[in-house]
Amino acid sequence: MPKSPDDHDPDQADTQVYPLRPLHAIKGRGSASQITQRFARDRREAFDDGWGDEEEEPAALRTTLEWEQAKTALSRHGSPDLPFHLGLNPYRGCEHGCIYCYARPTHSYLGYSPGLDFETRLIAKQNLTEVLRAELSRPAHVAAPIMLGSVTDCYQPVERELGLTRRVIEVLAQARHPFSIVTKGSGIERDLDLLVPLAQRHLVAVYVTLTSLQPELARRLEPRAAAPHRRLRMIRTLSEAGVPVGVSLAPQIPFLNDDLEQVLAAAHEAGARQAFYAVLRLPWEVAPLFEEWLQLHYPDRAQRVLERVRDLHGIDEEARAAGKVYDSRFGQRMKGTGAWADMLAQRFALACRRLGLNRERVELDCSQFHPSLLSAQQSLF
């Protein structure tokens, strides 16, 4: 499994972006360039020799898919910042193309760019369900909630055709193993026939990421994810079907998605009863990619946004001078530190208290799992 992009000190001072000149935003894509991945031996810079037409639109990029044989299905971590320690990801890369995605640097381990490659060169794990069955059947396996989609969105567009996530849920349902899902993809509604019976057994919870209610901002931040109004409909559909559903307000980006209270109110009205947030994280190549995106879409406030992000992560003047924008230390990478982080936390807590969010904790039941349920003679439920 790919390592966490936060495994090392993310000082990106020597990371460079080599885009074609002039740089254009690419319709339907979050990134505008192929940043050189940090393990590359050579770095190349595109050079404008004057022969190209500066007004020419960049060619549309096709999404390609590769298959791989997974060695493991479950990934484990020891981060104290996260409420789960088991993750499962049917895909590598994500076509949603969210520019802020902290998982982009995982593509570097494959020799691909965390820029456009991350959202156009997807890898699907062909034998995932077989490997998952084997891992759940091991005597040493102890049931704990599994997070589906910790470094990818398991309901990104390719799932409609491949159905890997659905097959994973079928295995977990057969074993009565608890899990949760974080997604921006409306494709989750296809699997209500599986999720509703699991919800009745307290075996599943779903969290829909809703970064902002502003359609234009969402289209630029998350170009191939469902629109904000569509995600609200997802929340309503799941809630009315009896599936416990919450909302994720991640990431919070200063001076961009400043409608936290409105998002919480809309999600609550749609049926969400849980909520959480995280501040913008910029590990490794994500920092220059996000800065490039800001210059393309919001040049008037780019510097102000980056300075406030540095404030949120407690970056001192010396580190700022060296180009550092992010601190990956446990305990502050998710919520930040300092006055601006405290203000954000207070706004979130106040809005949740007013709306009645997070009053009851969603507890998933681990006691129902037994590996013998995975035998061929057992039914799904």
UniProtKB/TrEMBL annotation:
Residues 1-22 are annotated as: Disordered. Keywords: Iron, Iron-sulfur, Metal-binding. It comes from the Bacteria. Transmembrane segments: none annotated. It holds the Pfam family Radical_SAM. This is PA0069 family radical SAM protein. CDD domains: Radical_SAM (cd01335). Residues 80-316 form the Radical SAM core domain. Residues 1-11 have a biased composition (Basic and acidic residues). NCBIfam families: rSAM_PA0069.
